[in-house]
Amino acid sequence: MKVRKRLATGRRMRRGFTSVMAMLYLVLFSALSLGFYTATTMSVQISKNERSMSVAQIGAESGLRYMRYQMGLINVTVASGGDLLTPVYTALQSSMSGTQNLGSDSIAMSGGVIYIPSSNTSHFITSDATTGAKFRIEISQVGTQIVLKSYGQGTSSTITRGIQLCFSQAAHASAIFNYGVASKGKITTAGASYIVGAPDPTKGSVLSTDAVDSTPIIVDGKQVSGDISITNPTGTVSYSGASIGGTSDPAQIPNHIHIGVPAPLFPTVDPSPYINAATASSYGLLPGLTKQAAGSGTYAGYYVNCTIPPNTNPSFSGTVKIAGVLYIKAPNVVSFKGDTTVQGVIIVEPAATNDPVHNQINFTGSVAAKSTSTLDSTFGTLPSLTGAFILAPGFATNFSGDFGTIGGSIISSQVSMTGNAGGTIQGSVICLDNNPMLVNGSADIIIASTGTSQYPSGVNFGAYYRPLPDTYAELVP
To answer: What's the rounded Cα separation, in Å, for the pair 258 and 248?
Structure first.
């Protein structure tokens, strides 16, 4: 009987031990399960945060790439200082407003900062609808540089990544001086007129960027020695009995006519280098038109670094010489009716608007134009400002007499050469506005163009902004 009692007691002890062990394992597995759950939850949260940061980084980088494209696309006035931000704001508004990227939002400028989109920091541009990547841009000016900050977000509004990059201004280039004659308007040649490149016939080329007229160029004159180009992809070139591109063969002429070519940038004119140089020279820049001593007595009228005040409408007759800078203020109709020699450059004030009726420069007599490089040292730095004869945006320039040799380009809002006008132009003829250009009568234009290897002084094609790679930096939001 005692033996059975001890056996029963032993069995009860073993069952108690097993229960304790089961409870221990239950507690252990519960703790492990809770730990695994916590670790899994933390991993999911960390993964979600990392994904949000990655998407935000992608959004910021997308914004930076997008704005690099936009900053390289804009065209602003060349400047080395002052207010650079306002022209950038205006250019970006023009190129981005109403686009699919910006949608119904807008670009704002406030407190010296450009905000894209708007100044509401909750507004973003979506770069990837699938991942939710989006960005917003802030642009400011520091010294002579533009500072661009791109902020990116994903689906989480609490996680933001930022990138900063600086931009500097760089001048645009253009192939327009590869053309002998280029105009934004319609070009017509008629009568016994010639446009000839010499010594290179291809320099006698003609370009029209008129996108409205269905026939931007009509060649009824005798010859265009270079090729003819129009930017209108649906436009045509009319010609009759003319030699074009060195051939009169009707089967070969179409090889020298180019339709739908890319439009080159047309130049903007800044007369300030000439005004500053003339003001600082030994003669200064006179406040009004004043006749100088004739010197050798060869000239009936001798004018040095002169200004023609607005509404003066002077008419020069007899034998006249202009030395240095002739600065014409608008409105004005200026006529040269005798034998005129220009040793220098004719410029107009930059505020002149396109008005070929009230703003004119007319040469009805003969004219010879010598480069500014032929001036002596008393003209200060003027001799170094080469390449231009007439820089007259807003004005119509008309030739009806013999113009001999002209030592620089003619850049005006409208140009016509009629009657017996003829001579050699050591540069190009460029019409800046959509006004008709006529070459008629027995006008012979010989183009001795320098091409794009040398732009005239005071002429530029605007500027864009290029990134400075060594300024790249990630921002702490």
So the answer is: 17
